[in-house]
Inverse folding.
């Protein structure tokens, strides 16, 4: 039920005394369509104010049952007022001030340049035309998508806050950013990274950081994949260096996915950090890199790359900026045989496609190893060479026989042709020649008993083929698996840096 009243307030008169007064206008307090109580200014006449209160109450009831637009008041309100509330909601939910201002400014740019004053002015075609003109003027597709995402986020918030029924830009989609990459990055190779660190640690001070500080920063970035802002936020209390399982914590306010991350540290990096901490004698709440400016990280690395003789822009047009150290971390994980799912977890990516397609770079070494794993095809020479090659082929893989003992031999070539073909006799240690001969005789005896006599006897060749197939199925390891296991067993070593 609506109520009308006059507001009372206190005021000092000419003599300085505090007196209580009553407003000249009547006010209305009623329950709106969204269920919240609202206060509206009426008229000086009480009767006219009562009629307005009855009308507002009737409209609220009609809006609840869908007879009239319950968002009428929000539609009349200027979009700038809604956008100020939107920015405050971003701050209230925990976004950093920088991120809230970035989203607000992008959405505001679209609204202002399209000439939208109220909600009813919003047109999807106008937004689409504005972004197309910005792209023709030089704006990248990725940035254009960010502007569209910001204004759609604002309108989605209006729907969620019960200020409108739908988002008029919901059907608009961003374009493919891969067709317009302005700053492609590359991953530094192990040799380049080694050269960079050795040169930097001996370099002069610039960007307010010594050579050792910059080298430690680069090495930590290449071993953790941390972004520049995350490295700048690290404090000594964020590191766990004393435990047997050392780790580092990134606070949610500095993590890109807005949540606290706890990641492991390599033992060699842990030892270097502990030694560096004792040298500096800093407190627990002090920053690891107090003079590091993440906004100048690319310029700082560019200068050190030039001194180390490493190209900042590669021949293919790819850049080696500070974020490339994160690409380097992902590529090293891939070269070391780390599971893609584990790499995704270490890089803290939302999808595995982002890890493998964007951050993992394949080099000539990886491509050559993959080619060497392919089976050898028949030669296209004369007929005699083809016949000779055919006679040399053997085994279920149809691989050519190898006469050189130092060359690669399939596992099944090492197996004996008896009942103990599944047993590797090379594992027998410290046995006499007589014992070996006894094992061979026992094998022959077991073969004769197993094969039988007469029509039921199996041919020796059939038995050998079955033994060969069984040995192949249990002991074959492809060349590609061998390469992967070798990389996993001996990952790229740069612990000495």
């Amino acid at each position: 039920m609506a109520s009308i009243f006059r507001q009372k307030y206190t005021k000092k008169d000419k003599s300085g005394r505090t007196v209580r007064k009553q407003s000249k206008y009547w006010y209305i307090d009623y329950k709106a369509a969204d269920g919240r109580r609202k206060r509206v200014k009426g008229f000086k006449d009480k009767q006219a104010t009562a009629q307005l209160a009855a009308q507002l109450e009737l409209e609220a009831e009609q809006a609840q049952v869908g007879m009239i637009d319950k968002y009428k008041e929000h539609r009349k309100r200027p979009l700038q007022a809604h956008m100020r509330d939107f920015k405050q909601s971003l701050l209230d939910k925990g976004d950093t001030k920088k991120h809230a201002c970035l989203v607000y400014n992008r959405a505001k740019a679209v609204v202002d340049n399209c000439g939208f004053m109220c909600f009813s002015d919003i047109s999807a075609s106008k937004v689409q035309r504005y972004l197309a003109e910005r792209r023709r003027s030089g704006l990248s597709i990725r940035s254009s998508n960010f502007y569209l995402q910001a204004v759609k986020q604002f309108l989605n918030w209006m729907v969620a806050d019960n200020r409108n029924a739908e988002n008029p830009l919901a059907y608009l989609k961003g374009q493919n950013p891969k067709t317009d990459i302005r700053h492609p990055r590359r991953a530094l190779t192990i040799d380049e990274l080694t050269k960079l660190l050795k040169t930097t640690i001996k370099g002069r001070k610039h960007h307010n950081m010594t050579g050792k500080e910059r080298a430690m920063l680069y090495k930590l970035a290449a071993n953790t994949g941390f972004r520049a802002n995350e490295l700048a936020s690290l404090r000594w209390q964020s590191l766990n260096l004393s435990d047997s399982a050392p780790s580092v914590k990134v606070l949610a306010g500095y993590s890109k996915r807005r949540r606290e991350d706890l990641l492991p540290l390599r033992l060699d990096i842990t030892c270097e950090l502990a030694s560096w901490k004792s040298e500096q004698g800093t407190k627990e709440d002090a920053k690891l890199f107090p003079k590091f400016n993440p906004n100048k990280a690319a310029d700082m690395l560019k200068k050190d790359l030039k001194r180390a003789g490493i190209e900042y822009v590669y021949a293919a047009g790819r850049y080696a900026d500070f974020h490339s150290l994160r690409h380097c971390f992902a590529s090293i994980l891939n070269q070391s045989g780390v599971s893609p799912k584990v790499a995704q977890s270490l890089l803290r990516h939302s999808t595995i496609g982002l890890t493998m397609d964007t951050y993992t770079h394949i080099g000539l070494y990886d491509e050559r190893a993959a080619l060497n794993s392919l089976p050898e095809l028949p030669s296209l020479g004369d007929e005699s060479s083809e016949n000779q090659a055919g006679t040399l082929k053997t085994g279920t893989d149809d691989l050519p026989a190898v006469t050189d003992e130092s060359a690669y031999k399939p596992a099944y070539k090492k197996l004996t042709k008896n009942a103990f073909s599944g047993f590797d006799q090379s594992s027998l240690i410290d046995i006499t020649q007589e014992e070996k001969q006894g094992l061979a005789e026992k094998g022959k005896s077991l073969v004769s008993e197993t094969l039988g006599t007469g029509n039921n006897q199996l041919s020796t060749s059939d038995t050998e083929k079955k033994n060969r197939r069984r040995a192949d199925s249990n002991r074959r390891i492809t060349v590609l698996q061998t390469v992967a296991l070798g990389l996993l067993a001996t990952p790229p070593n740069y612990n000495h840096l």
User: Anything to note?
Assistant: The beta strands are 3-12, 18-31, 37-41, 239-240, 247-250, 261-264, 393-394, 399-400. Residues 388-398, 401-431, 442-461, 470-497 have pLDDT under 50 and may be disordered.
